[in-house]
Amino acid sequence: MRMYDIIYKKRQGLSLSKEEIEFFVKGYTEGSIPDYQASALMMAIYFNKMSKEETFYLTDAMMRSGDQIDLSQIEGIKVDKHSTGGVGDTTTLIVGPLVAACGVPVAKMSGRGLGHTGGTIDKLESIRGFHVEISSEEFFRNVNEIKLAVIGQSGDLAPADKKLYALRDVTATVDNISLIASSIMSKKLAAGANAILLDVKVGSGAFMKDFENAASLALEMVEIGSTMGRETIAVLTDMDQPLGNAVGNSLEVLEAIHVLHNRGPEDLRALCIKLASYMVLLARKTNTLSEAEAMVVEKLESGAALEKFKAFIQAQGGELAVIDNPQLLPQAKYKKNVLAAMDGYIEAVKADDVGLAALNLGAGRETKDSVIDLAAGVMMLKKVGDPVSMGDVIAELYTNDESKLESAMGILNSAIAYTDQKVEKPKLIKAVVTKKGIQEL
């Protein structure tokens, strides 16, 4: 078998066999297939697309290219959650304790962020003493006893995907639905959960800007999961504006604590309840979604989820006092208010620009070597549909580098659009995708 023939076959628009895809993934991971041939194949796939069978074969081969986590030591049905990203996506910090309080084991492997803000791991490290590098024995014990643990992602999990993604990123072949679906699902499947919930973001701050492409991606991922014997559900959620109010690491931890106290922004609270409810349903703790939602709400309102969060933080070395005294979180030296430019209503908040402002303030990484300012970020005090008067504080900027405030202010001002007409608040959850198809809400 020759790589040249595989490239030529795909260039002609023909489907690759399981053996051809496995040959490519194995050879590229081991280094016997050079970058220039791999990039040629990626470009051929980008233009000619992949069939469902090809996408499944690629996912399976990448999943098997490295470690596959065995979670059999953990009792119960393990449900994993994955978000396709976004701005102010704090859901894991809230959903994890909600689901764990319902008796569902959450064995979560998360990565660091490259972009607007840090990833879940970076956010958790805003809590003094919290450590993500724990032994397998401690990880399994924590999940069995507390029902929740979050660790850094293994470097050996789907290494073929890591190598291929880096290549696609520099060859303009990232935005192909089959390649995105196989990338996400190869890692989720290798992580060993019995069932998977996908939070697929749609809008200006998401990778998928429009509903049609987001729905196609969600359906493809659900079909892959189902074919692999993992029950999979996807929820399509709005990312035309940031989720919640906070965009930044310690700011998002504070907001998660507020929600677990049964306070906080309504959109973030509502989405976390819905995501947690689907995870409880997937774990077969209830027979219906409405029963699952009632259970989740009870765990939130009773304080059981907050207690679970405290146990989780303490088990991984974090300073418990931060939950009752948020001033112990990293604090920014400099703060600047963003003021409303007119009387009226907020018509739009471009999530990608808000994320860019947070990145400029130091909340994210421009490169893998960038150092995050854990205290930096943006607090959006007004969102789409809210009435404002000229001069109202609509957002707050936080940073430890005063020189960054001016550029971030300019970016954020350009992200806000106003109108004198009343504006409806956007629909938060747009659709649910199961193996039966897409159900628009």
From TrEMBL:
Coiled-coil annotated residue ranges, if any: none
GO annotation, biological process: pyrimidine nucleobase metabolic process; pyrimidine nucleoside metabolic process
Limits of the Pyrimidine nucleoside phosphorylase C-terminal domain: 345-419
EC number(s) from the headed UniProt entry: 2.4.2.2
Top-rank EC class of the record's enzyme: transferase
Cellular component terms (Gene Ontology): cytosol
InterPro entries: Glycosyl_Trfase_fam3, Glycosyl_Trfase_fam3_N_dom, Glycosyl_Trfase_fam3_N_dom_sf, Nuc_phospho_transferase, PYNP-like_C_sf, PYNP_C, Pyrmidine_PPas_bac/euk, Pyrmidine_PPase_CS
Pfam families: Glycos_trans_3N, Glycos_transf_3, PYNP_C
Keyword Transferase attached: yes
Molecular-function GO terms, alphabetical: 1,4-alpha-oligoglucan phosphorylase activity; thymidine phosphorylase activity
Reaction(s) this enzyme catalyzes, per UniProt: thymidine + phosphate = 2-deoxy-alpha-D-ribose 1-phosphate + thymine; 2'-deoxyuridine + phosphate = 2-deoxy-alpha-D-ribose 1-phosphate + uracil; uridine + phosphate = alpha-D-ribose 1-phosphate + uracil
Keywords: Glycosyltransferase, Transferase
Highest taxon, organism lineage: Bacteria
Subunit composition and interactions: Homodimer.
Function statement: Catalyzes phosphorolysis of the pyrimidine nucleosides uridine, thymidine and 2'-deoxyuridine with the formation of the corresponding pyrimidine base and ribose-1-phosphate.
UniProt record similarity statement: Belongs to the thymidine/pyrimidine-nucleoside phosphorylase family.
Protein name: Pyrimidine-nucleoside phosphorylase
Species, as recorded: Geosporobacter subterraneus DSM 17957
Lineage: Bacteria, Bacillati, Bacillota, Clostridia, Peptostreptococcales
